Amino acid sequence: MIQKVFLVDALVDGPFSGSPTSVFFLESPLERFKMASLAGELGSPESVYVLPHGEAFLLRFFTPLMELKAGVHAAQAAAHLIYELGVRPPTVPLLFLTLEGELKSRFHPPNYCSLELVSEKFRELDPAERELYAPMLGLDPKDALWGVLTSGNIAVLRVPDYASLKKLVPVQSELLKAAVQGVAATSPGKQGGDCDYYLRSFRPKVGVPEEHVGGGIHRSLAHYWGKLLNKTSLVSRQLSKRGGLVSLEVGDPAKVVFKGKARTILRSDVIQESLVLPPAFSA
Asked: In which element (H, E) is residue 129 found?
């Protein structure tokens, strides 16, 4: 049974920023097809289902098209609500159990939540691969200065600067045909700006033409930019239409601590009768 559903903007940087996330609190397990159908019904870029499991919480993540093994910004939205609603006191760390493994979260006054992520292994793309993926972003291959393929099967290209990143016009039809799950691009922050690096990420295969704010991709990028800039504390800004801000700590080479703000926008109920199939469909 679903207790409540909330709409949370995760990783916000002001009003109407961040990634809109539907957060469902469950009293008992819900069938997968119902979770997938509700996620499609609400149409948020990601939905997360939260089920208490002893002292921990089981999390399941869905885009409008499919289930994901993990969703970093959606987990951050769930942590924000658990603390905001008083389900756990702010002094108690949270343990999330996902299909990809464990996630640990903490509250940081006045209103931040952090997630401790395992660093992601990646391999560098060779020049031929960079030439393959660059046109999918409307990018001249000579401007793809470096690239990696993450373990989440996302190709990430580094472009020269903010202006190059801002003007990208992805070719959605080509992205849908790509062998990878998505293609992203990153650039260094502007001189005197408020961030260390920028990001744009495109994943139409999972129902997200452009991510409002990326999450898991920083498991690869944070260490790259940290080493390049000789920093262990970093800030990344998403250059999507809504935008968002992420703080990252990379002192430990085996992990990335991911921190951001969230804001609750709506709270409502799911009409339970709507989840019951008519007899003709339940046979």
From this structure: helix 127-133
Q: How far apart are CA 177 and CA 200, in angstroms?
A: 19
* Spatial CB neighbours of 274, under 8 Å, sequence gap ≥ 6: none
Rounded to whole angstroms, the Cα distance separating 27 from 83 reads 18
pTM: 0.92
Q: 132-184 pLDDT, tens per residue? A: 999 999 999 999 999 999 988 999 999 999 999 999 999 999 999 999 999 99
Q: Which strand (E) or helix (H) includes residue 232?
A: none
What is the rounded distance in angstroms from the CA atom of residue 235 to the CA atom of residue 233? 7
Q: Are 260 and 11 in contact (CB under 8 A)?
A: yes
Domains defined for the chain, CATH in brackets: 2-117+263-268 (3.10.310.10), 122-252 (3.10.310.10)
